[in-house]
Design a protein that fits this description.
- By secondary structure, the protein is mainly alpha-helical.
- Helix content is about 65%, strand content about 0%.
- It is built from five helices and no strands.
- The protein starts with 13 loop residues before the first helix and ends in a 16-residue tail after the last helix.
- It comes from Knufia peltigerae.
């Protein structure tokens, strides 16, 4: 028995289209490069006192993280262009990436707490990491809330 899935076709506002298909993948590519070639930079963005050089286990996790970022980039660059008006695809992908963002933010706070530190003691690297994650996460939340869309599903205007 075949199952049909209803998709919602709608024009994606230019800001979100540009951000999610071009800018966000560039941001993610910096994470790929850092995870693979500059592990100390990544580790310092989660802890003030990383174990350097990183252990074999840490390197394996960083490489796995780079792979996750690459697969997400592929979906952003290719899938969103192939399904350029399919709100179901766009919303599912952004929700999935938002889950990753929340997990990374949580990881940062857990690491800081495990060190017996507070938020006011964040290093520049940790603060930059948190700011980037909150920024892109905020854009994802705005998209999922349909802020900036011409019409919502009921024909009402949405404002940014």
């Amino acid at each position: 028995m075949a199952t049909t899935v209803k998709t919602t076709q709608q024009s994606i506002p230019r800001f979100y289209r540009t951000f999610f298909t071009s800018i966000d993948p560039v941001i993610a590519s910096s994470g790929v490069i850092a995870n693979l070639f500059f592990p100390s930079l990544i580790l310092k963005s989660y802890t003030a006192t990383p174990k350097l050089p990183p252990t074999t286990e840490t390197v394996a996790l960083l490489h796995g993280s780079a792979g996750c970022l690459l697969s997400t980039m592929f979906l952003q660059i290719v899938l969103l262009r192939l399904k350029s008006s399919d709100m179901t695809v766009w919303r599912c992908l952004q929700t999935s990436i938002l889950i990753q963002d929340v997990a990374l933010i949580s990881s940062l706070f857990v690491a800081v707490a495990d060190q017996g530190r507070g938020v006011t003691t964040l290093t520049a690297e940790e603060f930059g990491n948190l700011g980037a994650l909150l920024g892109v996460g905020g854009i994802r939340v705005a998209f999922l809330m349909r802020l900036g869309f011409e019409d919502d599903e009921h024909g009402d205007k949405k404002r940014v």
